């Protein structure tokens, strides 16, 4: 990626749905090829994307107006997080990061790491100081990003698709 690229972070719009769904399908396949069991059971699906957009959870990271990364950001609402085998760092308001998916065209360019920085700035701008996220035990790429970005392992949470490693980062 060159320095001349215009990178933007914005809410997803319903007109973005087909591109977002294509990117998620690429990520589902990438996880399968990597040997991960995450996202291999029909979730997330196209209805998940529609719901994210309708509820204003869906966000896109664009490079020169082309969608490069999709993410769902959910404020204070993840029922699965109310029970954790372990302990969260905080009990106040939080944002959950779900469904991070990078387009094949932009894979390997460090955009997911950059996305986490942008999310932190966005969350702070909303006066929220906690980000919570979970991932599969075999999603090594995401585990590495979380470690590099200073997320603290808090324990395990049970989602519909099974147990997930849960992390939190307190923003200052």
What does this protein structure show overall?
The chain is of the alpha+beta class. Helices cover 29% and strands 31% of the residues. Strands 1-2-3-5-6-8-7-4 form an 8-stranded mixed sheet.
Short description:
This protein is α+β, with helices and mostly antiparallel strands and 172 residues long. It contains four helices and eight strands, in the order E-H-H-E-E-E-E-H-E-H-E-E.
Q: Topology of this protein?
A:
Layout (H helix, E strand, L loop, with lengths): L6 E5 L5 H17 L12 H9 L3 E6 L2 E10 L9 E2 L8 E8 L8 H15 L4 E6 L4 H9 L3 E8 L2 E9 L2
Parallel strand pairs: 5-6
Antiparallel strand pairs: 1-2, 2-3, 3-5, 4-7, 6-8, 7-8
Helix pairs in contact: 1-2
Q: What share of residues are in beta strands? A: 25-35%
Q: Can you count the helices?
A: 4
Q: Report strand order across the widest sheet.
A: 1-2-3-5-6-8-7-4
The first-to-last residue Cα distance is: 30 Å
What does the main sheet amount to? 8 strands, mixed
Instruction: Please identify the structural class as seen in this structure.
Output: alpha+beta
Q: Low-confidence runs (pLDDT<50, min 5 residues)?
A: none
Question: How many DSSP-defined strands?
Answer: 8
Query: Percent helix among the residues?
Result: 25-40%
Rg, nearest Å: 15 Å
How would you sum up the global shape?
globular
Average residue-wise pLDDT = 92
N-to-C SSE string, H for helix and E for strand: EHHEEEEHEHEE
């Amino acid at each position: 990626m060159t320095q001349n690229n215009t990178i933007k972070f914005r809410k997803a719009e319903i007109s973005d749905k087909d591109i977002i769904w294509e990117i998620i399908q690429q990520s589902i396949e990438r996880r399968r090829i990597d040997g991960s069991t995450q996202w291999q059971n029909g979730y997330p699906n196209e209805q998940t994307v529609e719901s994210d957009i309708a509820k204003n959870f869906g966000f896109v990271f664009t490079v020169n107006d082309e969608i490069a990364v999709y993410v769902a950001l959910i404020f204070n609402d993840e029922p699965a997080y109310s029970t954790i085998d372990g302990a969260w760092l905080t009990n106040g308001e939080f944002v959950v990061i779900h469904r991070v998916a990078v387009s094949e065209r932009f894979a390997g360019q460090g955009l997911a790491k950059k996305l986490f920085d942008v999310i932190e700035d966005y969350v702070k701008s909303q006066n929220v100081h906690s980000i919570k996220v979970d991932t599969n035990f075999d999603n090594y790429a995401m585990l590495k990003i979380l470690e590099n970005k200073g997320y603290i392992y808090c324990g395990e949470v049970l989602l519909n698709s099974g147990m997930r490693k849960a992390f939190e980062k307190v923003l200052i």
